[in-house]
Known about the structure:
Layout: E1 11-16, H1 18-21, H2 32-48, E2 53-58, H3 61-71, H4 80-106, E3 111-113, E4 120-123, E5 126-130, H5 133-140, E6 144-148, E7 150-154, E8 158-162, H6 164-175, E9 179-184, E10 189-190, E11 199-200, E12 202-203, H7 208-211, H8 226-240, E13 245-250, H9 256-261, E14 268-270
Parallel strand pairs: 1-2, 1-9, 2-6, 3-6, 4-7, 9-13, 12-14
Antiparallel strand pairs: 4-5, 7-8, 10-11, 13-14
Amino acid sequence: MNSISDNxxxxxxxxxGGSLITDxxxxxxxxxxxxxxxxxxxASALQQRPSLRLIIGHGAGSYGHVSxxxxxxxQGVHTPDQWHGFxxxxxxxxxxxxxxxxxLIEAGLPxxxxxxxxxxxxxxxxxxxxxxxxxxxALVAGLLPIIYGDVIFDIQRGGTILSTEDLFAxxxxxxxPKRLLLAGIEPGVWKDFPNRSQIIPIITPANHEEILPxxxxxxxxxxxxxxxxxxxxxxxxxRAIPELEILIFSGDKPGQLQEVLLGSHKGTVIRSQ
Length: 273
């Protein structure tokens, strides 16, 4: 069987942000019309570019973040009450994943969900072990694997949460894709959040220290750090993988996600130089 690593140039990692597919201000609220449109755009892009191989990840949005914050799951899980909360967060994340996968399947895509909680072991909030055999086999078979921010058993913390960005960082180091796309509701990284008058077009390791003071966390509940954490993680990833291009852009504008999947540049680009 061929390895996806043998042809990584056709591989793209795409995250559908929790703010894009859910209403993060209202617990367990799906933006269903947006999700269905996004699924159709992904299907159209793959029809136009059959060689494109995708791994799709999605955030937990208003399904997972609220319960995760309530139980402090990311920080660690030890007591019976905390383990009960761990299971509640798992259920919320899995519920949203089923809705996302269903939308992709209805769009005619061969989507298959691969829950991280069933295959990843963490150590102090970072991936320690991840058997990627199933994910790689799905890609080689022409399927569309779906992962998502999920609860994870952790050697040190007992349990924790790994965001889609945490998981994508591990996959990017393994598979060396050329593009990592982060689709949210914001059109990019704002230079003056929350005023939102100017987008930062390019972020590199050389200029990211300058723009850090302008970054905020998140306007809604987000236990995995918000925009500042996202940018710092992306910059670190471009240092490790100099050829990687990361885009932070809006999937809320109809047609834009499809354009980006086909190679256009929107929003903020994060690259090594």
